[in-house]
Amino acid sequence: MEKFSPVIEEKWLGRISYSEGLEIQNQFVCDRLENKTEDTLLLLEHDPVYTIGRTRDKSSLQKKEVELPYPVFETNRGGQATYHGPGQLIGYPILDLNFYKKDLHIYLRSIEKSLIDACEQFDIKATTREGLTGVWCDNRKIASIGVGVRRWISMHGFAINVSGDLKPFKEIIPCGIRDAEMTSIHQESKHKVSVKDFSTVVSKSFKNELLNLLSE
Q1: I need a surface site. Which of 33, 66, 75, 96 has the fewest CB within 10 A?
Q2: Domains identified in the chain and CATH numbers
């Protein structure tokens, strides 16, 4: 039997609203379920927004939604509150995980590894932290990850801070982790890079890492 060779298309969407991004994801998921499209990595920036997974515990928002500087969007990913905005690279992989190892824990670790590899190309030593999902530079968090699946088609994904204002994170408890300091590629590296250019680095690293997830 011929081994499956992944075809992952890449699409740069620019800056869009969170609701528009979710609508695009849902359409790609439906198309992937019906084999109307290949696996796709959507890359973009969002207008300023706070998001939180569907959970009764919304303490990570800290304040009433009307008191926050930007709107709050409850979504179907896992995890607590986070912030998305300009200067942050968002990646939404729409993958048929039936062709890969059907294990969300392994999938999450592969996303972390791909972001760590991308950081290394800018001389940033990034790592994971035991018991926590995401990517860190010492005790400073540089990337957040939250995924969802529908019949093993993945959606949502990762957000890594490249540049931009990090102050909106101070209005919440990012990912429910108290005293978590947020950082960015620009703060951790002497190299300056645009979000779009950094997306090219991340895309290559992500695609390489997915090769390790192929089913036997």
Answers
A1: 66
A2: 8-210 (3.30.930.10)
